[in-house]
Design brief:
With about 220 residues, the chain is an alpha/beta fold. It has 7 helices and 10 strands.
């Protein structure tokens, strides 16, 4: 499939419109109160209505129970559930079976050893997202603007579509795509002016940078 671009942590109509107009393939909405990108359930319908089928909606949760997932699904009507916590492979399989939606599981990566869990998650998730392992003092499991050594993914065949996340921005995404073979890239803090404050200009520049990198002969 063509390389996909996901803009995550959208909170405002302006940011949603910018991502859609730039041609993003997936729009991520975060339901995690500790995150500066948290979107209250009551704010979701207005924003997701703007999408109107122009992109796929991704609902991101962190170690959510079934009751919370049901609330998020009712409010967001997501196309994909992104599980970004410490959910076990068993839990991922349960969520996928219970709610009947495709599931993307985030895997925190720092070293090659962190990929040992890939087969177990690939067996139950529809796609995988490789994010940088958060610093020890980080309050959030993702969105920390930290990159990892992309070389650890070299030669990996997950048997599922994979996305790359963690510290990506307009300046380094072409380098990342030259280093690893992935099916998509995911950006959040890299298109912000401040935590949780998306920049329409940065969103447009990021999507353009990805499209330009993919168009290069090396890709």
């Amino acid at each position: 499939m063509a390389l996909e671009v996901k803009i995550c942590g959208l909170k405002t109509a302006g940011a949603v419109d910018a991502a859609l107009d730039a041609g993003a393939d997936l729009l991520g909405f975060v339901f995690f109160p500790r995150s500066p990108r948290h979107l209250p359930l009551e704010a979701a319908p207005e924003l997701v209505a703007r999408v109107a089928g122009r992109a796929r909606k991704v609902a991101l949760t962190v170690n959510a129970d079934d009751a919370l997932l049901a609330q998020v699904i009712a409010a967001y009507a997501p196309d994909i559930l992104q599980l970004h916590g410490s959910e076990s492979p068993e839990r991922v399989g349960e969520v996928r079976a219970r709610f009947g939606l495709p599931v993307m599981k985030a895997i925190a990566v720092a070293t090659r050893d962190d990929l040992l869990v890939v087969p177990a998650y690939a067996a139950v998730a529809d796609r995988l997202l490789f994010d940088a392992k958060p610093p020890p003092d980080a309050a959030l499991p993702g969105g920390n603007g930290v990159a990892f050594n992309w070389d650890v993914l070299a030669g990996l065949d997950a048997g599922r579509p994979v996305m790359l996340s963690g510290g990506l921005d307009t300046g380094n995404v072409s380098q990342a795509l030259a280093a690893v073979r992935v099916d998509g890239v995911d950006v959040s803090s890299g298109v912000e002016d401040a935590p949780g404050m998306k920049s329409p200009e940065r969103i447009r520049a990021f999507v353009a940078a990805v499209r330009q990198a993919v168009a290069q002969p090396s890709h």
